[in-house]
Write a structure and sequence with these properties.
Blueprint lengths: L6 E2 L3 E4 L6 H8 L2 H5 L10 H16 L3 E8 L5 E10 L4 E8 L8 H15 L5 E7 L3 H9 L3 E12 L2 E11 H8 L1
Parallel strand pairs: 5-6
Antiparallel strand pairs: 1-2, 2-3, 3-4, 4-5, 6-8, 7-8
The chain binds coenzyme A.
Length: 184
């Protein structure tokens, strides 16, 4: 079982969600801009969506299937986004995902969170590979992956379907040997 873990970076604290986050999460995530480039975030986003997500993510953490974190500001404690690793234990692999409050885009916060999440994935969860995908209409997410040390794997054609439209997806990954070599 993955113990509840809190990761602290220079400006952020990545921590487990609690049901007390429901209202803030609903307010912050409820933006069309966030919905448009993600696959699993409803829009509009209701309080019930938040409750159900937080309950599910808590169970998934306990069962070692997922490592979801609220992204909060170290200085104020404000919840400004979310990130996580969807763990495939059989393969020692995880898929990383993230979103950030629109008013905080462009400040490097997601990159800071992604770097910390990758470190946690290798050092604590003992993964061998961490991968991530983004719609090609969302190059900012590809920049986050690159800046976090991931390598471009290639383009998966019409891999995702959203609102009846197929989207090409770019895939990135980092494997343990690369992560360890970069730390030397
Ligand atoms: C993608 C997202 C998480 C990025 O968060 P962020 O905190 O702004 O990311 P960072 O500030 O760490 O880095 C963003 C990088 O993308 C770059 N960028 C922004 N818009 C860009 C664009 N249209 N084209 C290319 N690069 C772009 C920024 O300049 C920055 O790179 P730089 O540091 O080299 O200048 C945020 O935009 C978001 O929440 N989007 C909606 C949800 C989403 O798409 N999640 C990811 C699903 S795969």
């Amino acid at each position: 079982m993955i113990e509840p873990a809190t990761i602290t970076t220079r400006r952020l604290v990545l921590r487990p969600y609690t049901l007390d986050d429901c209202e803030v999460l609903t307010r912050v995530i409820n933006r069309r801009e966030i919905y448009e480039t993600t696959l699993n975030i409803p829009h509009p986003y209701s309080l019930e969506d938040a409750r159900s997500y937080i309950s599910r993510s808590d169970e998934a953490r306990k069962e070692d299937r997922d490592f979801p974190c609220a992204i909060t500001l170290k200085e104020t404690g404000d919840l400004i986004g979310g990130c996580g690793l969807l763990v495939n234990r059989k393969m020692d692999r995880a898929e990383m995902g993230y979103w950030l409050a629109v008013e905080h885009w462009g400040k490097g916060y997601t990159t800071e969170a992604a770097i910390a999440l990758i470190r946690h994935g290798f050092d604590v969860l003992e993964l061998n590979c961490i991968e991530a995908h983004h719609f090609i209409i969302n190059p900012a997410s590809g920049r986050v992956m690159t800046k976090a040390g991931m390598k471009y794997e290639g383009r998966l054609r019409q891999r995702a379907k959203k609102d009846g439209q197929y989207h090409d997806v770019d895939m990135y990954s980092i494997i343990r040997s690369e992560y360890e070599a970069a730390r030397k």
